[in-house]
Amino acid sequence: MTRRRVGWVAAVPWVAAGLVLAACTSAPVATPTPVTTPTPVADATTPPTGVPPGGIDPATRFTPLTVATMTTPAPVTGTDGKVHLGYELLLTNATGVPVRLDKLEVLDADSKKVLSSLSGTPLAADSNLIGGPTGDEGTTDPTAPAAPIPSSATAVVWLDVAFDGTPPVALVHHIVSVISPPGGAPTSTVDYTVDRIPVAQNPAVVLGPPLQGDGEWYASDGCCADDTHHRRGLAPLNGRLLVAQRFAVDWYLLDDQHRTRVGDPSKLTSYLSYDKPAIAAADGVVVDALDGLPETTALPKPPKIPPITETVGNHVTVMVAPGVYLLYAHFKTGTVAVQRGQQVKRGDVLGHIGSSGNSTTPHLHFQVMTTGTFFPTDSPPYAFDCFQMVGQVTERVWDDVLGTYPSEVLPYVAAPNPGKRTDQMPLDRNTVRFTCG
Question: Where in the chain is the domain with CATH 2.70.70.10?
Fold first, then answer.
C-alpha cells in the first residue's frame, strides 16, 4: 500500500505545515474505473431502532486551536447588577506554524446570543502564553497587539462574561484565528465554533459576613475582569493547571479618610485591619486550623515566598456544605480560636487578622473552595446575603505595595449607586459595610 497526502492539504497550508494527515490508496491502474454512485442500504435519516447515527457531521472541520476549560463556569450576581461568569479557556496550537487568535465570542449555546466578544487589544490584554512573560500584576499593556501562539504552545484567555438576565444552560465559543506559515506562504483565516461547555445551574452559595463590626472594608483583588494575583493566579498543581484563587478577596479595613494604615508602614500595628476579628460566615465544621507560624517582619519589603504548606499562614477552613469550604487566611499568630472537628455557628470568632504566610501587610484572605485544602482546589463564586455598597478604590493598591504607596489615603470615589445589596458578590476594589439597616 502506498501513502500520500490527500488533496485538500494543498488548499489548507497550515495542515500541510503542521498536521500531516494521510490516506490509503491502491496502486494506480492504466485505465480509470468509471465512478458509480453507491446504492444506500437503508434510509440514513431513519436508522433502525437502537442503532446510533454514524458518519461525519457536516459541521466537522479541522481546527488549528484546541480548546479546554479548567472549571465549570458558574454564575454570580455582582454589585453592578450583572450576572458574571468568570472562567478561563486554554487554547493549544495543534499545528506546526504560528496561529494568531483574532476574535473570541462567547455565545449562549441554545439561543446563539452573543454574550461577550473580544478582539484586538482587549483580547490581547486578557490572554497570555502559559509559562510566558506576563509582567507584574496590573502592568499588562492594554495597547499591545496580540502575539501569535507558537506551534505546540498553549495560551490562556481570562474571561469575565457579564450580562443581564438568566444564565444559559451551556456556552459555545466562536473563534477566528489566522495561520501564518513561514517562508511567505499565504495566510489562512479559520473561523469555527467549538463544542458546548455546560454552565453550573446551582446558584452561588450565599453567606453571612466574614468580618465583624460596621467598618468600611476594601475588597482588593476580587472578581472578575482585572489582572490581579487572585484572578490570574494560574498554578500547576499535582499535574493539573488550576486557578485556586479565582474569586478570592483580600479584605482591608478603611477609616473615614479612606486609609488602610496610619503611621510607620513597617509596623504591623499601623494597619487598621490588624488584630480585627474574622467570623464564621455560615454554620459548619472546622476541617483545618493552623496557628504558630510567624508574621512578616520585613515590611514594607515583601517577605520571601514560604513553602507551599505555609502559603496561607495561620488559617481556618470551615466546611459549610458538601464540597463548600470557607478559607480564612493570614491570621495573627496566637489568635486562631477554633480547632479541627469543632462545630461553629455563623458569627463565631475564628481568629484575628494578621500577616502570616505569603503576606506583606495585614489583611484577611477569604474565599470559597471545593476542597478542604487550598492547594489544590477550585475557586467557585459566592455571594453575601446583605451588605451596604459604599465606594470604590480607583487604583490597584494591593498587599505588596500597600506599605510603599506614596499616600496613606487611597484613591477613592463614592459608589454611584450606594446602599443595601442582597445576594450579591462585591466586585474588585468595591468598599462595603457588612451591616444591613
Answer: 205-433
Q: Does the structure show a pLDDT above 70 at 136?
A: no
Reply yes or no on whether the pLDDT at 313 is more than 90.
yes
Nearest to 228 by CA among 240, 245, 242, 212: 245
> What's the distance, Cα to Cα, between the start and end of the chain in Å?
82
User: In the predicted model, what is the mean pLDDT of the chain?
Assistant: 87
What are the CA-CA distances from residue 428 to residues 166, 226, 285, 393, 411 (Å)? 23, 8, 29, 9, 14
Selected residue with higher pLDDT from 298 and 88? 88
Task: Tell me which amino acid residue 120 is.
Answer: G
Separation of alpha carbons 213 and 312, rounded Å: 24
Cα–Cα distance measured from residue 256 to residue 267, given in angstroms and rounded to the nearest whole number: 21
User: Contact at 8 Å (CB) between 331 and 315?
Assistant: yes
Please name every residue paired with 219 in a beta bridge, in sequence order, or none if there are none.
Answer: 251
pLDDT tens-digit readout, 38-75: 555 555 556 678 888 888 988 788 899 999 999 999 99
Region 184-193: mean pLDDT is 84
User: What is the reported pLDDT for 226?
Assistant: 79
CATH 2.60.40 location in the chain: 65-198
Q: Encode pLDDT of 346-369 as tens digits.
A: 999 999 999 999 999 999 999 999
- Distance between CA atoms of residues 190 and 178, nearest Å: 6
Instruction: Output the CATH code of domain 65-198.
Output: 2.60.40
What CATH number belongs to 205-433?
2.70.70.10
